[in-house]
Each structure stands twice: as C-alpha cells, then as structure tokens.
Amino acid sequence: MSIELQPLTRHIGARMTGVDARKPLTPAEVAAIEAAMDRYAVLVLPGQDITDEQQLAFSHNFGPLEEGANSGARDAELRLPVVFADVSNLDKEGRVTARDNKKRMAGLANRLWHTDASFRVVPARYSILSGRVVTTEGGNTEFADMRAAYDALDTRTKTEIEDLVCEHSLIYSRGQLGFTEFLPDERVAMKPVRQRLVRTHPVTGRKSLFLASHIGTIVGWPQPEAMAFIRDLIEHATQSEFVYSHRWTQFDLVMWDNRTTMHRVRRFDDLNVVRDMRRTTTRSDSPTADQEAA
Ligand code: OGA
Ligand code: MN
Predict the structure, then answer these.
(1) Which listed CATH number (3.30.70.2860, 3.10.180.10, 3.60.130.10, 3.40.720.10) goes with 4-283?
(2) pLDDT tens for residues 31-89?
(3) Which residues contact residue 293 at a Cβ distance below 8 angstroms, ignoring those fewer than 6 apart?
(4) Ligand 1: which residue has its CA nearest to atom 6?
(5) DSSP-based three-state secondary structure for 225
(6) Which tens digit of pLDDT belongs to each residue from 231-261?
(7) 0.85 exceeded by the pTM?
(8) Most distant pair of Cα atoms in the chain: their distance
C-alpha cells in the first residue's frame, strides 16, 4: 500500500494513509513519516486500532521515549505504564475521575496552549496520541503552527526576540488556573528550566516560536513585562490562520512535532463522558539553552 498525504490547512497538518502502525515500520516508512512531519508538523493517521505494545513499538522509531509525564502521580496511582502520558479522564479503576480528582486538576492545564515537556531540559520531539475512546461533542485537539507564526512577525520583533530565553515549569501553567498546591518534592521536580524563545528546526532550518503556557518569565526581564509580552506572542501565534482543529474519530493516531507547534484540548463533558487518550512522547536531541549555573 502506498503512502498518501492530504494537507488539512494552508500551513499545518496532513492526513496520512498507507501506513499500518500495528506492524514494524520499514526504514522507508520511518523516513516518509519524518519527512511529512518536517513539512506538516501534525499528522493524522486514521484507523489505527493499536494496543499499548504496538503504540510503544511505533513510537520507538522516532527517538528515546519520555517517561514520567504523569507528574504528581505516584506510580501506584497510575492506570498505564509510566512511558504513557495518560491523558484520559479515567482513574486507576477505569472510572471517570471525580470533579476534585488530582489527576483531573492537572489535566485541565491541557486546555491551555502548550508544547509537551518544554519544562524539561531536553524537551520533547514528537508526541503520539492514540484515540481509544473519543468524544462526539467537544474534546477537539487544536494545533498551532509556530513556524508560520514566526514568519508572520515583523522584522523588529524578530530581531528583538532572536536571543531571548524563557523559563518553563508546570508550576506556571498550573498556577494560571489557580492550581497551586504542590508538595515540597513536586516543587523540586518542577524547578524551572530554560528554553530559547526562537528555535531553528535541525532538518528544515526553519525558525519557530517556542511558546507554551509553561512559560513563567523571560530571563533578565521583569516578570510582569515578560508575561504581558508572552501573552501577546501566544495570541499572535494562535490566530485561526495558523491553527488546525482536530475532531477525533476512534482509532485516530495523531502525531505532532513539539519543536514547531503548540496544542490544546477543548472542553467537553468530562464528568460524564469517557475520553481515553494515550500519549507516547519522544525526546529531542539536546537542550535549547544553557541552564543557569547551580
Ligand atoms: C497531550 C495533550 C490533548 C488532548 O496529550 O499532550 O495535551 O486532546 N492532549 O487530550
Ligand atoms: Mn499536551
């Protein structure tokens, strides 16, 4: 079966058919997926009814896997193995999480525009999200193209931001929602890390904005001034012309390049309706910025 690509918007997203994620990929298939990711930044592979093992095997083609994305949860509380980010609204027993459930509280931050794992020194490369049980109303995932957003900035802004470095932490994104109860060891684990605001894609050479709600300041700037500017940039970067909104069909496998996109999930009736989404995440090659000397 040959691989076919159908672009989804002017800038971002393509639907890819002709790959079976349940089977080992050939080197040519891996290369075709990577080339399509470099071009479209988000790929939708429909009809991929995969097991957890198959999702792991598929993901391993695209770099070392991130672990421990379920921050704050003790291993004993997890529904899935630690290499999965459990972005479902289910607890360990498979029941819809209660309104004040801690996992639910943390997951609400996925409704803010973000990139995955920008709060780690070596941030994420690809995220691979499998829709095992999807919603019929709400729960779309939206993706914004940080390359097109960068290109659309005026020259003066491009010059101003070229060498800026931001601090990212889960404390900041969750804090925006008023979620401020962190245990002392969680605060240590969530220590801010530094990331360049402008990144260059290692293959295409295209520049992009490295934005996320995880940002809490710009190094060397007064925090309120930094945050006002970051809000402006996020507003600019998420205009509808840069966005693809994905309406889920069961067994869609959606992958995105965290180096060139932001995403968020839209609200749905999560206290009553099951949404079972499982994410694997691969790491990029290196930090984007030097970390502060300890
Ligand atoms: C994620 C995420 C969005 C969604 O998996 O990283 O933000 O649609 N999920 O659940
Ligand atoms: Mn995410």
Answers:
(1) 3.60.130.10
(2) 999 999 999 999 999 999 999 999 999 999 999 999 877 766 666 778 998 999 999 99
(3) none
(4) 116
(5) helix
(6) 999 999 999 999 999 999 999 999 999 999 9
(7) yes
(8) 56
Of 87, 140, 173, 250, best ligand 1 pocket probe by most atoms within 8 Å of the beta carbon: 87
Say if ligand 1 is within 6 A of residue 127 CB. Answer: yes
Segments in the chain forming alpha helices (H): 27-40, 52-60, 102-107, 146-151, 155-161, 170-176, 184-189, 223-237
- Our answer on whether the CB atom of 129 is closer than 6 Å to any ligand 1 atom is yes
Name the residue type at position 20: D
Place of tokens 């090659």: 285
- In angstroms, rounded to a whole number, what is the distance separating the alpha carbons of residues 42 and 12? 6
Residue 294 has pLDDT above 70, yes or no: no
CA distance 208 to 256: 14
In this predicted model, what pLDDT tens digit does every residue of 135-158 receive, in sequence order? 999 999 999 999 999 999 999 999
Q: In 10 A of CB 192, how many CB atoms?
A: 20
Task: Answer whether 43 contacts ligand 1 (Cβ < 6 A).
Answer: no
